[in-house]
Design brief:
By secondary structure, this protein is an alpha/beta fold. Helices cover 33% and strands 21% of the residues. It binds S-adenosylmethionine.
């Protein structure tokens, strides 16, 4: 197996286990999420590092793709905004996450009566999405997990319509990590060991062909603001200040 495939495989195993341990109120085997207000938290697993839906200022009728959609949190938030004339496609490579997301999609349809979401199995380095078919690509704490970030940005550029935009929240490094931490599979799955330095990250976006690039938010990453991510919590303290959570917008 090639090195990049090994990394993806280990990330897939880690998130398969996270999906399997989902026990929240909105988990697949419970039915307590029937109230309309619960669509706001549907698919929330505490795995995010930003709010790309809010920053992307979506409009009714738009086509949106969410890279690494997990249990679907941002897909459902976006789906409420784009409405039944729009469409939101979540892409994820982990079967257990897709299963959770699809169960949540059923609940979303029941709660809202809107049928505008879809979850596709695939990698973000080779998106199962047509060329020039998307208005907005969002992603929340996923690209750092990719073993080939330039390929991800090239794929985003390919699927966006001309004038379309990408709004992604992600982790970048403020200082290079020691070799020992860089090779820690758990820390990689925790969204830190695989992260690029900010300048490298922006260069990968430029290299894919994006012109206008803007950092909308830049916040030091710490256990305090990492949320309840079950993997990050284990490593957070040792890494204070080493990484930031950023939200970047780039236009095609
Ligand atoms: C940290 S979680 C974030 C989930 C979701 N965006 C959220 O905010 O709740 C990372 C997700 O990305 C998926 N993922 C990681 N690397 C991927 C890749 N190369 N291709 C597709 N999905 C990937 C994982 O399966 C997992 O569901």
């Amino acid at each position: 197996m090639k090195e990049k495939d090994k990394i993806r495989d280990s990330v897939k195993k880690a998130y398969g286990a996270v999906a399997g341990s989902e026990k929240s109120c909105c988990g697949p085997k419970t039915s307590c999420c029937g109230s309309p207000a619960a669509t706001e938290t549907l698919g929330e697993m505490g795995l995010s590092c930003g709010d790309p839906v809010m920053f992307s200022r979506l409009k009714e009728g738009q086509v949106v793709v969410d890279l690494g959609s997990g249990a679907g949190k941002d897909v459902f938030l976006a789906a409420r905004v784009v409405g039944d004339k729009g469409r939101v496609i979540g892409v994820d490579m982990t079967p257990e996450m897709l299963a959770l997301a699809r169960e949540n999609a059923e609940k979303f349809r029941e709660m809202t009566g809107i049928d505008n979401v879809e979850f596709r199995e695939g990698t973000i380095e080779k998106l199962p999405v047509e060329d020039a078919s998307v208005d907005v690509v969002i992603s929340n704490c996923v690209i750092n997990l990719s073993p080939d970030k330039p390929a991800v940005f090239r794929e985003v550029f390919r699927v966006l319509k001309r004038g379309g935009k990408m709004v992604v929240s992600d982790i970048v490094l403020n200082r290079a990590l020691p070799e020992k931490l860089k090779n820690d599979a758990g820390l990689y799955a925790a969204c830190v060991a695989g992260a690029l330095m900010l300048e490298e990250y922006l260069e990968a976006i430029r290299g894919a062909g994006f012109g206008e690039i803007e950092i909308l938010k830049d916040a030091m990453y710490s256990t305090g603001n990492a949320g309840a991510d079950p993997i990050s919590l284990k490593y957070g303290k040792a890494l204070e200040g080493a990484a930031s959570s950023i939200t970047v917008e780039a236009r095609k």
